[in-house]
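Project standup — Tuesday

K.O.: blocked on the structure for the chain from last sprint. Re-posting the sequence here as requested.
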Amino acid sequence: MSKIISVFVAIIAIAMITVLYTPIIPDFEVHRCPFCYGRDFCPNKQVSLRMSSFKDIINNLISVKNVYTTTNGLVLKKLGHTKDLNTMDFLICVFHRSHVMEPCEFQDVDLHRTNYTQALHYNMKTNHYNGFRVCGRNVDDSIDILIRRILKPDGGKDVMNVINLWVISIINGEPLFYKAFDAQHFSLPIYYGACGRLIAVEDCGQNLNEYEDYNWLSRARIARSIIGLALKFTSGDDDFRIYLTDVSPDNIVVNKTTLIAKFVDFGNILIVRKSNVSSVHHSDHYPNAVEHIYSEENVCQSSISDHNIYSICRFIISSSAPWPMMKGGLLHSIPIKISEENPQLEQLITNCVQPNEEMDSGDRFAAIFKLDNALKDILGMHPIDTSNLQLG
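H.V.: unblocked you, prediction finished:
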């Protein structure tokens, strides 16, 4: 029996060594074009998947979400599960053929008989296929503005480019978001482009839950950066408000050096045109919910919503954050000294989930500004010791 185990271990070891030292090149599926995501990032050199650790091997070889990390600082995304990609191909065939049971050969399609800009417009409005939706008052005008942003600089003259964007709108609108909004202003991952059925974005750091054991001041700095992003998505664009509908630690990464967080998944968002009509939407709080329960229609029809604030407070920062967030939320285990110096801190954290009528008049915007200012003051009084980030 021991010999069998030894042989098995040896086989596993050989397999691991082979994986570690043999470059694995992703399949970009360029042959699918023009019904792909584009060809503006087809690398002129080899792009290999990162296999430097057991975690890398598991993530890259058994990637349920079809998201891969590379050896040169890129994250490659197929934008959907395998079943989603198969559904996308079926929908492309249905769109172009009246007899859907016929074999679908993309090469046979007459690309000039279809108004793909109009089809892109329809998908962004109706959101039948994924979680990316433009909504609110004057939605058609809103989509026109976004499409003009997305199609710059050629203005939609390149038919192939418009087809690529239409295909993306079927599977996952994340690249549309990257093209429409400024990466530096919103602290987005750099979008490098697409090659076939993969997009390439910047690798921005480690998953938020990797910072569970970092000292409280480090986590406070991370929390402030997340608060800043939530407010910027809500109010930081001239024309639109951006509401995140899938806030979880899996979709937030942190730079290990700066402790600055970034959201890295924008496949599930609502984009709402700013309005002069005063209609503030307040998210309902469901204490026992493990997912964010919200009315999409109420968010879309408001002039402004506290949706982003509630999302990060309830599901990331506060002690009520459910799994898969770290136990106790991002600001767990407040040090005794800081708690004594700031006796209202725990209440401020709670208030951004469920505002206090006396302290905040039931307003989450007021609650989050108070919490952010409190964290700013604490970090000003207690500089972070960067040599001991992981010591509580």
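K.O.: great, moving the ticket to review. Residues 2-21 form the longest helix (20 residues). The radius of gyration is 23 Å.
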